């Protein structure tokens, strides 16, 4: 079953990551090793420190099996959507 939440800040995202990590019986150190991050980074992210690096966060989320999606504003011009498709090299939707 896929579950979705609207995340409004890094503290919420870190808390979600922590709960998922714990549900997989992973300690912070192991999650860090799997994602190429250190224990300090994992701790900072899970505690909502806003200065964590987004690339490292995305890598950790991927290793935990968490997909991150972005919902774009409605009524974007088709030209913008086409540019996004080319940028991401995939079909929207």
TrEMBL record:
One of its GO terms (molecular function) is DNA binding. It comes from the Bacteria. SUPFAM superfamilies: lambda repressor-like DNA-binding domains. InterPro entries: Lambda_DNA-bd_dom_sf. This is HTH cro/C1-type domain-containing protein. It comes from Pseudoalteromonas luteoviolacea DSM 6061. The lineage of its organism: Bacteria, Pseudomonadati, Pseudomonadota, Gammaproteobacteria, Alteromonadales.
């Amino acid at each position: 079953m896929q579950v979705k939440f609207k995340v409004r800040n890094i503290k919420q995202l870190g808390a979600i990551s922590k709960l998922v990590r714990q549900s997989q019986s992973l300690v912070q150190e192991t999650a860090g090793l799997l994602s190429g991050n250190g224990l300090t980074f994992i701790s900072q992210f899970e505690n909502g420190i806003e200065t964590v690096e987004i690339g490292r966060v995305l890598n950790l989320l991927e290793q935990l099996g968490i997909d991150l999606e972005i919902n774009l504003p409605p009524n974007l011009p088709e030209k913008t959507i086409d540019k996004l498709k080319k940028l991401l090299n995939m079909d929207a939707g």
